[in-house]
């Protein structure tokens, strides 16, 4: 659930719904330690442990893991942005989406602070999202301030482990406090001068929201890397909306950049692929090796 200075906080709830959850402060067994390896045991790992000795003795194979923040066994990435204060950023959002797609973890978009805008501003914004990311992409507009949208979000994540990720100050910790119904996490106002958050949260931490439902608070990031890909051709696989048009490219190794008779560029011209997505693709193409 949590890791602090060499101690691992293990919950016994997941396999033991009947009795009250216990949290054990454990050390990691020596044989499980590979020197200086952050991957030895990470938040979200399913572990075997000795209740009396308070030692983790085994770690189950991970279903998946995320690098930044380092987490295991996540069902969804909840990408959280506020609509304003700080302002929504399409570029950063797409970068997060790209990373989620690369790690093969489904993403949902949670839009917070909708109490701060007029209804038609929100509607316009939601249309923009639909237009660029498809009508089936799950979007949850919420306000913790006015208690809007929280029930719907809760229903959607029931029985899952969801991480809440996004820039500083968008309301990640506030949302988690609302969802678990307790003021456990510290939150902080956005700076008036810069409209940015203050990096209040500094650790990733699992919270039990309900039976088998976990929500993970994470620190707001300052910068986000592009995925590290082996070759440029791989990038198109992270843009699912390109899939049906790639067969129309004349060249099999087409990168959809300067090549003639490109199916992707044709689809952009026909408005079958949103220009915003194509522009972001080109931007990524330039950056996937520059890590
Ligand atoms: N008006 C309004 N304010 C909100 C809402 N959600 C969060 N806030 C405010 O936004 C500010 C930042 O919230 P936090 O929860 O600390 O943000 P965070 O994303 O956890 O930030 P870091 O921990 O720095 O990454 C706080 O002052 C919250 O009260 C909302 O739905 N409406
Ligand atoms: Mg926080
Ligand atoms: Zn092409």
Question: Which keywords apply here?
Answer:
Ribonucleotide Reductase Protein R1, domain 1; 6-stranded mixed β-sheet; 20% strand; binds guanosine-5'-triphosphate; 291 residues; 6 helices; alpha/beta; binds magnesium ion; Rossmann fold; binds zinc ion; 5-stranded mixed β-sheet
CATH architecture type of the largest domain: 3-Layer(aba) Sandwich
Q: Which CATH top level class of the largest domain fits? A: Alpha Beta
Uncertain stretches of 5 or more adjacent residues: none
Beta-sheet strand percentage? 15-25%
* Multimer state: single chain
Give the tally of β-strands.
13
Main sheet properties? 6 strands, mixed
Instruction: Bin the helical content.
Output: 10-25%
Order of helices and strands: EEEEEEEEHEHEHEHEEHH
| CATH fold label of the largest domain | Rossmann fold
Overall pLDDT score = 93
Biggest sheet, spatial arrangement of strands? 10-9-8-11-13-12
- Structurally, the number of domains stands at 3
Ends apart, CA distance between termini: 30 Å
Please tell me how large the radius of gyration is.
21 Å
Name of the CATH superfamily of the largest domain: P-loop containing nucleotide triphosphate hydrolases
Instruction: Please count the helical segments.
Output: 6
How would you classify the helix and strand content by structural class? alpha/beta
Small molecules bound: guanosine-5'-triphosphate, magnesium ion, zinc ion
Shape: globular
